[in-house]
Amino acid sequence: MKIDTTSTGGLHTIAQDAIAAEQAGYAGLWTFEGAHDPFLPLLLAAEHTENIEIGTSIAVAFARNPLLLATIGWDLQSFSRGRFVLGLGTQIRAHVTRRYSMPWSQPAERMRDMVSAVRAIWASWTDGSRLDHNGPFYQHTLMPPLFMPNPTEVDGFGPPPIYLSAVGPRMTRVAGEVADGLMSHPFCSPQFLREATVPELAAGADAAGKSLSDIVVHHSVMLAIGENEERIAAARSAIRKQMAFYGSTQAYWPILALHDRQELGPRLRDLSKKGEWDHMTNLIDDDFLDAVAVTVRDPAEAAVELRRRFDGIVDRLGFNTPYAADPTLLTGLLRALGGSGD
Fold this sequence. Notes:
Residues 8-313 form the Luciferase-like domain. Its EC number is 1.-.-.-. The chain is of the alpha/beta class. It is built from 14 helices and 12 strands. It is globular.
């Protein structure tokens, strides 16, 4: 497995984060579309590093259109010399329509069309073919030479790979059909990945004439890590709170159902509407927390556990820590997993 890390600090910290990540031995550095734009920091990350891969995990696809994604993906791929991954996700209806004021409908089918449109645009730039994408959601039929980048800008590596974020069966199948990789959600347990994600991903790949091995699976595992029991307890509390928040979202209820906690979803949703966050957190029991998250006390033992859980199903593994984790401890875990640590 390749081991990745995430930077959420924005433009002011990304250069330092990228340098530190590359020196530590991480294979990839990802940004998240939260309080900051996910693309701009990666330009600085590319400028200050030489080898580490960079990508968005995720950029909200439906907040943009295929031409914008194709352009920025091409530019970051060119500038980084082939180190960029365009990671896309749908977000949920409320955020797309009310936060971004953009249309929402048939997300799986819309995402399939969006990826196909981006690839059609890239093809017109790389081989000079006529742009003629007429999909159900996106139509791109005009590409004058003035607006076409020089294809030599991506010589030797081509346009970037596209990863899609997916939890439900329909989007997971779409990822298998049209994407180069799948980014699972931190709320997904290893059991969910094995029993729900992988079969649907394989079915999508098969429908497109591909094999499961053609799709990179990326997962960010929730980690409770600390130098003493007090710190570990605080980390587990933060993860419990994050899991309660995720569980209140209907899109993630299949994970609850697989773990025989289907009644928990509506309860968490109702409590979230009332703002009863502490009550929500208390509903996440230890057994469920341990099914999703890994508590790290000894890096060597943790590395064995992570490999036990994810070998054979995950190609890229990230560390999800919804609290201020000690980077030294994370680097120790990276080394135990086989990162260079140099």
